[in-house]
Amino acid sequence: MSIEITQQFGFDAAHYLELAPSGSNRRLHGHSFYAEVSLRGETDTAKGWVRDFGEVNAVLGAIREDLDHQLLNDIAEIGPPTLENLARYIYRRAKTRLPEVCRVRLTRPSVGQSCVYEEG
Q1: Could you count the other beta carbons within 10 Å of the beta carbon of residue 74?
Q2: Separation between Cα atoms, residue 108 and residue 120, nearest integer Å
Q3: How far is Cα 80 from Cα 5, in angstroms, rounded to an integer?
Q4: Separation between Cα atoms, residue 85 and residue 82, nearest integer Å
Q5: Is the pLDDT of residue 67 over 80?
Q6: CA 25 to CA 29: how far, in whole Å?
Q7: Distance in angstroms (rounded) separating the CA atoms of residues 58 and 102
Q8: What is the distance between the alpha carbons of residues 24 and 22, in angstroms, rounded to a whole number?
Q9: pLDDT in tens, 85-119
Q10: Distance separating alpha carbons of residues 109 and 43, to the nearest angstrom
Q11: Which is nearest to 80 in space by CA: 12, 10, 24, 19?
Q12: Mean pLDDT, to the nearest integer, of 35-58?
């Protein structure tokens, strides 16, 4: 039986979408983003957890620091800074240090949008 745990973090960043058909998405603008990173695995019988939340917070804090108050277009690893690519970027960055990562849900509440990224 596996257990899933989730940690959230938020950040504010700007971007523009050069390939957007028209409108405000082509212009520089910003959002408040909220990421939920889920980890799935067996609990360590001695410790009673899937992963220490202190470790999770350290990894996610480094990702947050790299994204917060940045122009996402300047981070080449994201590609075009869409919600989908940003969710994939966070997933892959977290997965390198936390192999139990199974899903990232990224939301922009001010516009009512979200994206879930999982690798199958």
Answers
A1: 10
A2: 24
A3: 30
A4: 5
A5: yes
A6: 7
A7: 18
A8: 7
A9: 999 999 999 999 999 999 999 999 999 999 999 99
A10: 33
A11: 19
A12: 92
